[in-house]
Every structure is written in structure tokens, then in C-alpha cells.
Amino acid sequence: MAQTISPPTVNATAVLDVQLKDIVKTFGEETAVQGLNLQIRQGEFFGILGPSGCGKTTTLRMIAGFETPTSGELTIQGQSMTGVPAHRRSVNTVFQSYALFNHMSVWDNVAFGLKVKKIPKADLRQRVGEALTLVQMESFAKRYPTQLSGGQRQRVALARALVNRPAVMLLDEPLGALDLKLRKQMQVELSNLHQRLGITFIMVTHDQEEALSLSDRIAVMKDGRIEQVGSPSEIYEHPTTAFVADFIGDTNLLSGRIQQHPWTLTTTNGLQVEIAPTELSNGTQADISIRPEKIHLIAQTATPPPATHANHHQGEVQHTLYTGPHIHCIIKLTTGERVRVLQRNHIRYQPGDTVCVSWAAADCQVLMPPGSP
Hints:
Mean pLDDT: 88
CATH architecture of the largest domain: 3-Layer(aba) Sandwich
Low-confidence stretches: 1-14
Number of strands: 20
Strand content: 25-35%
Largest sheet: 6 strands, mixed
Structural class: alpha+beta
CATH topology of the largest domain: Rossmann fold
Order of helices and strands: EEEHEEEHHHEHEHEEHHEEEEEEEEEE
Shape: elongated
Strand order of the largest sheet: 6-7-8-3-9-10
Distance between the termini: 54 Å
């Protein structure tokens, strides 16, 4: 029977494992993180997502203790981390580069931290065995990192972090060095591992699909600030800013002015898009996001679009991209706007075909204007 690693000792009354209050981090004259506020719950898988240079890795390094905030307060399980060095924190980090010792066996790599702490030999052997079994690497204990595949090395790095029984696991682009197929396999393994352990995972990534598939909640960062925090479905289905809508998956962004009664957005080209009621006042300049898979595409001579679709516009197919199960189509509307449509590949369109695109008013996500609170 497979052994299971003992859960870490945690404060049962702590609702939050990690809290960042008004965190600022500067490097000389450059501000990497600006007034960051995050509350990460005990036991959740929390993703920090954003492009290169947005401050996400700096944030993770401050939680780990590798960087010190310039100002603000950081707590782990209710305890202030001010002045607490990295080795005294109940966290462990798994890096993209694995950071394994090539001159040590797999067993010795996993045991290294426990040896430094002078854990008794019997306890050390048990804990190393549990950690290797947990990541299905017990049969590779005598091998060296250079004899392992990328996925196997990543498992060893996970075991080395887990053997210390941290309250919080920090993952810094953990799957970034793997090929696509292996990355998807490791996503499943990471998710299963998190569910079995029940400890808090905080993952930094620039991969949108990875964040959506693994995280309970996601913080999207831009220029050192949080743009939006929410569940994967909230982030994808209800982005609040143009940056989030465009960064998370594919979308169509249309700009124009809001008009009430009926609720519409009118672009500078004169395209009128019916939208759901919004809090924005009449005449406000705004953007809307429409996901490509929400748009219905039919030939102009075919049956009418669904009656539930308030928006119907004619256009011409300009480009198609075959991706296997789906086809991406670029449609130029008669008003000049271009929209991307994602559809199943059972119907093929060619450049030059005249088509009709339609979508529901509820599928138009009205975004907050720049500078809004």
C-alpha cells in the first residue's frame, strides 16, 4: 500500500495562510510591485498570472523570503514575516530550473534539507520514502538527475519541497521547462497532488491555460498591480478590464460609446452592438469583450441565426486557421471591424465567403474604462 506523507502542522483557526497588505517593492528607482493586497486562503491552489515583468515572481520571492518588501506587511498563518529569513518560514519553493544537485542521487537530493536540519536517521528515511512515493519516484531513488527526464526531475523537485512538510508550497513557473504533452500530464499530477495533501499551493505562471486549469482562484497582474482576482470562470467569463479580457484566452475587443434605451455600444465605424444593461452612464466611452466561441457563424443563405441572438451582422471571411477540432475564422464586417470566430471543424468556410455572425447581448462583457477604481 502506498504511503502518504503526513500533513503539516497548521493553525486550525487560520482562515488565511498568506496575506499581503499594501506591499511595495522597489529596486533602486524601479518599482516592481505597487501597493499589492492579496488574501490567500488555507488549502487553496492560488495562481498568480501575468506577462513577463509584471511583478509576479518578485511577489513569490517576497513570500518565500528571498526578497524583502520595501513597505507593507506580509503574514503567513497570521504571523508577521518581517525579519524572518527564508529558512525559518513554513514554505518551500519549486523552481522552473528544478535546482537539483547533479552530483547527488535522487534520494540524497530529497534528503538534503532534512540532513541540514539534523533530523534523526529513522525519521529521515521514512519521510524521504513517503515523499518519493507520493510523486511516484521511489524506484528512481538511486539515480542521478542527469539520468532522469524533465518530468521526472520536476517530480524530484516536488518531493524535495514536500519532504519538509511546508504549510505553503510555492511554485515558480514549475512546468515552464517541459514540452507541451508532458506539461499537460504534469498539470493533472499537480492537481491530484494538491487535492491529496490539502495544503496551500501558490503558483506563478505566464501560461493562461495552466492557471485556468489548476487554480481555485487567480490574480492577474500588470505593471506591478493586481488587475483582477477571481475564480477561473470569473476571470474568463467576466473580465473587468480590457487587459484581463485580452490576456486570458482569445477575445474580440470593440470600443465605442454606451447608449441607453435600448442598451447598445456604437463604434466609431457605426457598428451598433446590443449589450446587457450596465452601470455606465449614457455616452460613456467603453470597451466590450466577446469571446470567439460565443459568436455563431453561418452562411448568408443558410437558416436564420438563433432567435436569442440580438446581434446580427454581415461580413466576409478573410482568413481561416485549422487547429484540429476547431477552426479559427477572421471575419471582416461590412462596417470594417474584424472579429474572430471559433467554431467546430464540421463546416468549412473559405476566404471570400459571405457570412452572417451573431451573438447574444449577454455575451458582451462591458469592461471598466481605464482609470476606474
